[in-house]
Amino acid sequence: MQIHPDDLLLIVDVQNDFCPGGALAVAEGDAVVPVINRLSVRFDHVVLTQDWHPPGHSSFATSRPGSAPFQTIAMPYGPQTLWPDHCVQGTEGAAFHPKLSTDRAELVIRKGFRSAIDSYSAFYENDRTTPTGLAGYLRERGLKRIFMAGLATDYCVHYSALDARRLGFETVVVEAGCRAIDLSGSLAAAREGMAAAGVRVVNDLD
Ligand code: VGL
Ligand code: ZN
User: With a 6 A CB cut-off, is 85 part of the ligand 1 pocket?
Assistant: First the structure.
């Protein structure tokens, strides 16, 4: 696939807590780093997202006595998976992987910083209506096609890709630069959902 000057690479949540040894480690999460570094030099526009929760965030199982991580609970905006405490603002776990090239990023979108609401997507919080501002940024800059990679395929990449399509962006997910949490079939469901929404899922860019 030909990369154009007005294409964007969106690098999703490549943070220590999603890598081996981290609080919500994704299997082989750190394997995306060299792939993404190789991809990012080919784009004129690079944006990073950073999961950025206050201590005691409502998506943390520890904020609800009697609940356990990976359990699903009802929130006012719908079902929500509870997670181990992760990506707490200002901690090492919330920092980008030390080998991730971040210098060329023109914007870092932080998300999940409202205590009462989780945020998987780079565009909207989990209520699907509170925007992060990314769509406005991309529109004002005239960027229309988004390539995505990062962590995790079945959560933040998946939700970002669906929202990107809903907002009318051409969307390509590069799977070589992604790894999944895969909770009870969530990876297969994410792949199906992305295909149905018109997201192009490719293994790698040649
Ligand atoms: C993510 C679960 C909780 C992700 C973030 O980046 O995919 N998953 N917070
Ligand atoms: Zn999170």
Answer: no
